[in-house]
Write a structure and sequence with these properties.
The protein is mainly β and 109 residues long. The protein contains no helices and ten strands.
Length: 109
């Protein structure tokens, strides 16, 4: 296994970028990749089921929050059963665990 691969169940999942963080729950695995600060690197959080099949790639509705300056995520966490993703500017987004869509924006600064 390399820093570009992660074993989920019996499947090895490969990525184009380094794995920065993983969180495993009873039902799924969340993976945060260390991506470049470019359009391709913005949606760098993924969810997989326990068989290693991708459920979703994060989809934050930046425009709904009036955010023009976008950065990749740098941290993911689960707090009281809710998934949060934090970007380089310490902007926290609550993420729907089942769909990957943003539900709420909460600036930490």
């Amino acid at each position: 296994m390399t820093k570009y691969e992660y074993t989920i169940g019996s499947r090895i999942v490969s990525f184009d970028y380094n794995i920065m963080q993983t969180i495993e729950t009873e039902e799924e695995v969340f993976v945060l990749l260390k991506t470049p600060c470019s359009e391709d690197g913005l949606n760098n959080v993924y969810s997989f089921n326990k068989q290693g099949i991708m459920n979703w790639r994060i989809n934050v509705h930046f425009e709904e929050y009036g955010i023009n300056l976008r950065f990749p995520f740098t941290l993911i966490s689960i707090i009281d059963g809710d998934l949060y993703a934090i970007d380089f500017y310490e902007r926290r987004f609550k993420i729907d665990i089942k769909t990957g869509n943003s539900l709420k924006y909460d600036p930490l600064r």
